[in-house]
Design a protein that fits this description.
The protein is built from 3 helices and no strands. The chain is an all-alpha fold. It has a domain at 3-60. It is elongated, with a radius of gyration of 19 Å.
């Protein structure tokens, strides 16, 4: 597995994108509250959409790895059963 697809990096990307998502949702709220900033609402909205896409992709890649690792630790005999040996 390459370094850019490691569990640690996927976790770090997920945390960072979660923070960006929260920041951008707050930005949308602030932009919609103030009349003079409503024209700039597209930018935090774009950040919200893009960060949610990256966050979803990272979580979809990370969760199956963690679940498989937990199953292998909890039930080591299933490794032999699932591998067909």
């Amino acid at each position: 597995m390459p370094w850019y697809d490691s569990d640690l990096l996927c976790f770090m990307i997920s945390v960072f994108m979660g923070l960006v998502f929260c920041f951008s949702v707050i930005g949308v709220g602030v932009a919609l509250e103030n009349e003079e900033y409503r024209g700039y609402c597209w930018f935090p909205l774009m950040l919200t959409v893009l960060s949610s896409i990256v966050l979803t992709a990272s979580i979809v890649r990370l969760v199956p790895r963690i679940v498989k690792r937990c199953i292998d630790k909890l039930f080591p005999q299933t490794k032999l059963f699932l591998s067909g040996r």
